């Protein structure tokens, strides 16, 4: 801004500034965090790093209107700390008496080597999601992701009842369902896909979940979640994982209103 001069200017006055075009409905500017899975980046649009912007594929982000958000998802590279953050958020919500249920995935290690993943429900039930297979041959009924064979029966036995119970509970207070994660292994289950879609479309449950970064062939449900205008996605990185907890909790509280 220029400082004032003592006398009148001889140059003609500037034309009045034209108002900026309004953003489309549902895309009003919301501050975003830089990309997390591909490394920390500058804050988009120069806005304060408070709310994360939804991911729209690699290298791009499209801000969502926070007032429209109904669900919160975390994304980031493997091992960055998404599940740890989910567990911290869960503990904080439970201690506040907020109704919450769901599941998270946990590594299984033997002798310092990862041998698979377990599904752990918030009520404490545990079962195998996948295990390393020593047999390179693949049977017709096996579901594989890399070296891991997915135990679809175990996964559905543990997870589907939890999702049904959350969806069919009382509507007196909006419930929170933790889904960690919606990835390749979990998406072998068509019943799981259907349950998640119904939950996202409903009004009685807020989903707090995790999704993988885009890599290889797109996963249909994951891309649907990224593109939903009622989903707020936080990009978790090594740079922000220790400082983002309060922002996630604030987003969850906003979604429950």
UniProtKB/TrEMBL annotation:
Domain of life (superkingdom): Eukaryota
UniProt keyword annotations, A-Z: ATP-binding, Hydrolase, Nucleotide-binding
Region (Disordered): 1-47
Keyword Nucleotide-binding appears in the UniProt entry: yes
Residues spanning the membrane: none
Residue ranges with Gly residues bias: 33-44
GO molecular function: ATP binding; ribonucleoside triphosphate phosphatase activity
Pfam families in UniProt: NTPase_1
Coiled-coil residues: none
Domain AAA+ ATPase span(s) in chain numbering: 68-237
UniProt-listed PANTHER family: CANCER-RELATED NUCLEOSIDE-TRIPHOSPHATASE (PTHR43146)
Protein name: Nucleoside-triphosphatase, cancer-related
Lineage of producing organism: Eukaryota, Metazoa, Chordata, Craniata, Vertebrata
């Amino acid at each position: 801004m220029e400082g004032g001069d003592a006398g009148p200017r001889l140059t003609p006055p500037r034309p009045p500034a034209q108002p900026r075009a309004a953003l489309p409905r549902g895309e009003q500017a919301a501050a975003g965090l830089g990309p997390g899975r591909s490394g920390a980046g500058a804050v988009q649009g120069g806005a304060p790093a408070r709310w994360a912007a939804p991911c729209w594929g690699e290298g791009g982000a499209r801000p969502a209107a926070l007032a429209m958000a109904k669900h919160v998802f975390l994304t980031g590279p493997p091992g960055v700390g998404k599940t740890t953050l989910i567990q911290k958020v869960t503990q904080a919500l439970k201690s506040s008496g907020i109704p919450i249920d769901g599941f998270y995935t946990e590594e299984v290690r033997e002798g310092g080597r990862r041998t698979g993943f377990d599904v752990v429900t918030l009520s404490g039930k545990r079962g195998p999601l996948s295990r390393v297979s020593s047999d390179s041959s693949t049977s017709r009924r096996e579901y594989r992701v890399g070296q891991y064979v997915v135990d679809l029966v175990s996964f559905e036995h543990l997870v589907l009842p939890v999702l049904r119970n959350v969806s069919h509970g009382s509507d007196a207070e909006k419930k929170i369902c933790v889904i960690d994660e919606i990835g390749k292994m979990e998406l072998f289950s068509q019943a799981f896909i259907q349950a998640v879609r119904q939950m996202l479309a409903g009004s009685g449950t807020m989903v707090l979940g995790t999704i993988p970064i885009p890599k290889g062939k797109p996963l249909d449900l994951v891309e649907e979640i990224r593109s939903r205008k009622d989903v707020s996605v936080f990009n978790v990185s090594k740079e922000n994982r220790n400082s983002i907890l309060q922002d996630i909790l604030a987003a969850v509280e906003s979604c429950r209103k």
